[in-house]
């Protein structure tokens, strides 16, 4: 059952639990005004015991560097709890931010939420963050 955790005039965030993952769907703009709200929403889920997250960005209409900073902050918190973080349905314009920042290789990106949640989370999968593990 999808639960709304944030409602803002330019953005809405909800989450659902699938196969051991807290799937967070962001709908709208991720910027200086909304990024802190998303960070706090994820921290609240962490405090409730969730450790493994899929961030579904398929409905993100805009993301700036503040959004990327929020993702880095979330990653640090999830890593502290030996959790996992994956991304699903990332629009090409948002994926470009990851590429320009040099973080593209540091995360798992999946075409859909179903694909991202298809396998169970691996605790400690962020151990090598922000560098991609050696192949």
From TrEMBL:
Origin superkingdom: Bacteria
Pfam families: STAS
Positions of the STAS domain: 11-120
CDD domains the record matches: STAS_anti-anti-sigma_factors
UniProt xrefs under InterPro entries: Anti-sigma_ant (IPR003658), STAS_dom (IPR002645), STAS_dom_sf (IPR036513)
Molecular function GO terms recorded: anti-sigma factor antagonist activity
Membership in a protein family: Belongs to the anti-sigma-factor antagonist family.
Protein name according to UniProt: Anti-sigma factor antagonist
